[in-house]
Amino acid sequence: MDARALQPTRAQFIAGSLAVSGASVFSTINVIAQPTKTLVVGLNVPQTGPYSDQGTDQLRAYRLAIGEINAKGGVMGMQILESVGDDQTKAPVAVENARRMIERDGAVMITGGSSTGTAIAVSGLCQEKKTIFMATLTHGDETTDIDCHYHTFRRYNDAHMSAQALAKTLLAKYGTGRWFHITADYSWGHSVFDNLTSVVEPKGAKTVANVLMPLGTTDFSSALSQAQAAKPDVLVITEFGKDMVNALNQAAQFGLTKTAKILVPLADEYMAKGAGDNFDNVVTTAPFYFKYQYEKYPEAKAFVDAFVKKYGTPPSNGAECAYVDMYQWKGGIERAGSLDPKAFIGKMEGYHFNATKGPEYWRAWDHQGINTVMVLEGVPVAGREDPFAYAKVLEVHDGDAVSITQAASKCKIEDS
Amino acid sequence: MPGQLLDGFVRGLVYVAIALGLTIVFGMLRLVNFAHGAFYAIGAYVGLIVAERWGLGAGLIVAPIAVALFAVVFDRVLLRFFYDREPTSQILVTFGVAIVVQESLRLIFGGTTRSYPIPAALAVPVNLGFTQYPAYRIAFAAGIVAIVLLVWFFIRYTNYGLIVRAGVRDRTMVQLLGGNVSLASTIVFALGAGLAGLVGAAASPIYSVDPDIGFSFLVPSFVVVVIGGLGSFWGAVLGGLIVGELQSVTTLVFPAASDVVIYLAMALVLLVRPSGLLGETEVIRG
């Protein structure tokens, strides 16, 4: 083709320019003439990778909440539209998704995440973009501690709360003895390890080893061989999602579930289902367990019933957090009467509410949700009424009693 | 340490079995098959479904057959049109099929991680003197070793193996001599795929099953093939065992690097011996 054929004539250039300017003028008029009837929220969860079960379940909960909210008139009369991204449990992907949601789709709030690694990264971006981030399934301390930000809120329990809640059970049930740790090698795993050892070591527990395994490991046999050689009294598996299922199932094949007591500091319904009978007797923590809150709180019952009706399966604890976070964001916007983040944050800090687990509140100085922490013990598959009904409740701790104090926290939240 | 070395050996055998399919297909067809991980995933799911109803043994029989049949259809309907195209087209089409398979599995079975139990007799560790090792992994390793030897026997000593080896060297000449290279190609492709399907079914009681599982084994398997030498039978075996041992021993001394170490090894091999440790024509010699 002649190169000149690609070059526009002067007349074509002028006509094209006029068309473009005309389109932009009319589109501007269109926006002004029509008040905004919709708003976009960014749902940034892993749908592939090691935490995909958890991400997919959160997405279900978000969609349930959005459907309910829209059916009842939306947020201040505006219908919620979703912009969805698969963060693959990778921080750079999560950040790129959030950037697209904010810059291209005009998202006024980002929510999601099934890992502390992605949550911290997205939190940083949202602070830069002055966009609200409702972090969902992130359990590492950093999210509302050293990496806390003005625009970020996290309702899910953190590792400090889990470790403090576990303290009594750990010492009573597990004793001190020799502890062997297999830990996910990123911010969350390190956070849980630090918290656990700071609780049990002063009481006399000896940490034999801490083997750090990369996120997404499928074969834990090398770490388990080491654990077997060390003959520990307690094996702590600080892994999450599919990684935990593989680690625990493989630990059973190595005979470790028979020779050592197993501790999984954080679990959910999908992990317990995947591990089956290997989850029997395993002690863990969770912020929500559908069987327990269902019986106690009408709001939890309504949520679980709606979730089961729509999806045919009960919600995992991450899904519960996603559902409540969506409603908390809606409530904050409506109390503020504005989409302005500053007005929203002002109405969230120190706000007390009842959602699905009794009284709780948003702590003002670090934006951490203060709510109950449960210590659970796994039951065998034969003892489960439902494949997801994986545990019995050992203890329920008040959030204030187990959360970090302001004096001990490294959180220095920005002014805006 | 002996426990770690045994563990590296067994882990390496998983890579060997997957990489073997990749390398013999490349050797015969000069095809870089990115859908090979998908064969593993299909095998894992077929094995899972059959094993849940009729036991693991039935799963191990049905999975490789089902995957081999799938591969034959894939080859006849789509892939054969790309035999004579440039490698980029082959990579794109096989990669595309891999994604289609992965997302189809997600659509049919959901994204949930699934696992199936090991038969009770094999669910306990065995005392080997120097270590306690899971009985299932030992049985798995023995099975893989037997299969590797069978495949080698097929390529080295059967008439089809002869056509395969001759076809690698000069496809046109074998056809002129009356050898059915096209049929042999299909058989090789089905064999490689069936092998991946079998490993998928056999390894699933160890590694749980989800739609992304194929890709998580595909990448290390390519590393194995590159280290061993593209198209080399014993190269795949050597490469697989090296990768398995490297990962296992690195987990002992510096676990954070256990993922990275295999890529470092690959880079080193490419620098020192670009055609891989055992070259690229070993399959011809058997």
Low-confidence parts of chain B: 281-286
Structural class of chain B: mainly alpha
Task: Count helical runs of chain A.
Answer: 15
How do the strands line up in the largest sheet of chain B?
1-2
Based on Cα principal axes, name the global outline of chain B.
Answer: globular
Distance between the termini of chain A: 57 Å
Mean model confidence by pLDDT of chain A: 89
Oligomer status: heterodimer
Strand content of chain A: 15-25%
Shape of chain A: globular
Rg for CA atoms of chain B: 19 Å
What string gives the helices and strands of chain A in order? HEHEHEHEEHEHEHEHHEHEHHHHEEEEEH
Largest sheet of chain B: 2 strands, antiparallel
Strand order of the largest sheet of chain A: 2-1-3-4-5
Q: Average pLDDT of chain B, to the nearest integer?
A: 87
Helical segment tally of chain B? 12
Task: Point out poorly predicted stretches of chain A.
Answer: 1-34
What report would you give on this structure?
The complex is a heterodimer of chains A (416) and B (286). Chain A contains 15 helices and 15 strands. In chain A, the strands form four sheets. Chain A has a five-stranded parallel β-sheet, sandwiched between helices. In chain A, strands 7-6-8-9 form a four-stranded parallel β-sheet, sandwiched between helices. Chain A starts with 9 loop residues before the first helix and ends in a 14-residue tail after the last helix. Mean pLDDT of chain A is 89; it is low at 1-34. Chain A has helices at 10-33, 52-71, 91-103, 116-129, 159-174, 187-200, 221-230, 241-253, 256-259, 269-275, 290-296, 298-311, 317-336, 341-348, 399-402, and strands at residues 38-45, 79-86, 107-112, 132-135, 152-154, 178-184, 206-213, 234-238, 261-263, 283-286, 352-354, 359-362, 369-370, 373-378, 391-397. With 416 residues, chain A is of the alpha/beta class. In chain A, a hairpin with a 4-residue loop joins strand 11 and strand 12 (359-362). Chain B is mainly α and 286 residues long. Chain B is built from twelve helices and two strands. A two-stranded antiparallel sheet of chain B has the order 1-2. Chain B is globular, with a radius of gyration of 19 Å. In chain B, 53% of the residues are buried.
